[in-house]
Write a structure and sequence with these properties.
ten-stranded antiparallel beta barrel, 10 strands, globular
């Protein structure tokens, strides 16, 4: 075989290889944020943090979700966020899902706290075999410690080592907040 034939065969096999992957909504993951920043209200602080989250299918394309985020920032400021809710995913194409999520969010910023709602929409797909990307917007309506309700852009990219383990990067930016980190995921 010549190089041209090999390149054509690889290009034709790429969509087939990508379609062999499955988007799982049954997972737990952990993220470390070496960069976390809040710049608004009475804060202009940097720090780091962690995030734990999970998703569990409950009926066909519906899943339950839970997230916990803890940021340790300058001047001893701690920000904790709990999210509990549900979502749905619907195929727009082969290995391309649109995801809607919503639920209850609770923020604690030092001694101030608030409970509100969150809602968002995302797209999730494989861009190459084993390489998955996810991105969208999420609105959070809770005010605590000078942080106001806001809308965030969310981006995630993961490399799937196999059907159970993946690792990647994630970023959330919007309004007063920016977090950037590395993530490990276990699909079960």
């Amino acid at each position: 075989m010549n190089a041209k034939t090999l390149i054509c065969a690889a290009a034709l096999a790429l969509p087939l290889a990508a379609s062999a992957e499955q988007l799982s909504y049954r997972f737990v993951d952990v993220a470390h944020f070496p960069e976390a920043k809040i710049d608004g209200g009475r804060f202009d602080v940097d720090g780091d943090g962690i995030q734990l989250r999970g998703s569990l299918p409950v009926y066909q394309n519906i899943f339950a979700l839970a997230e916990y985020q803890d940021l340790s920032l300058d001047h001893g400021i701690d920000v904790t966020r709990f999210m509990v809710g549900a979502g749905g995913h619907w195929p727009l194409g082969q290995n391309l899902d649109i995801i809607a999520r919503g639920g209850v969010v609770h923020y604690e910023v030092d001694s101030d706290d608030d409970t509100g709602l969150f809602a968002g929409v995302r797209l999730r797909t494989f861009v190459a075999p084993k390489v998955e990307v996810e991105g969208g917007v999420e609105h959070v309506s809770a005010k605590a410690g000078g942080m106001d309700s806001d809308t965030y852009l969310i981006g995630e990219g993961r490399y799937n080592f196999n059907s159970q383990f993946s690792a990647g990067l994630l970023i959330t930016v919007g309004g007063d907040t920016r977090v950037f980190g590395a993530q490990g995921r276990f699909n079960f």
